[in-house]
Design brief:
159 residues, Rossmann fold, alpha/beta, five-stranded mixed beta sheet
Length: 159
């Protein structure tokens, strides 16, 4: 973890060529354009990689934004701590790309990361090839952005 105190990151995950799977990147880009905050670093990690684990170590708190398949209503946003993943989500697939949230959770435990990691997960409907969001995600996009922005202000920046 970083020697500097109160260091925060917001990280978008997803594949923008797989329709709803790109929702994490869409929300991240909106946040960058509308509410960039001091003390918060923003990163586009796309479909993620092991580099993400090393990036997480640099921050006290991190918010990951990602599309997920958790049996919720399409477009529904759920924000939770990564350590609570098994309590909040059901179903075999928590993420819609190769480096999923379950894998990240296992690596988080294995590497004994000290960062507090939150996940803003948005239920996907369609992850077929294409570059536009499904209608339910388009309809809920502004709500997801405003709730994510509110979470950043009230939780990450309340220290």
């Amino acid at each position: 973890m970083s020697n500097s105190s109160n260091k925060f990151a917001v990280i978008g995950l997803g594949n923008t060529l797989r329709r709803d799977d790109g929702i994490g990147i869409v929300i991240l880009e909106s946040l960058l354009n509308s509410c960039k905050r001091e003390r918060v670093d923003y990163f586009n990690f796309g479909i993620a990689s092991f580099d993400l684990i090393y990036k997480l170590r640099e921050y006290d708190s991190v918010l990951l934004i990602d599309g997920l398949d958790a049996g919720l209503a399409a477009g529904e946003l759920k924000i939770f701590e990564l350590k609570d993943i098994s309590y909040h989500l059901k179903g075999p697939a928590l993420s819609t790309h190769e480096f999923d949230l379950k894998s990240l959770f296992e690596l988080y435990k294995r590497f004994e990361l000290k960062s507090k990691i939150y996940v803003a997960g948005i239920q996907v409907q369609d992850v077929s090839f294409g570059d536009s969001l499904s209608q339910p995600l388009k309809d809920s996009l502004e709500h997801s952005i405003s709730e994510t922005r509110l979470f950043i202000d009230k939780t990450l920046l309340s220290f």
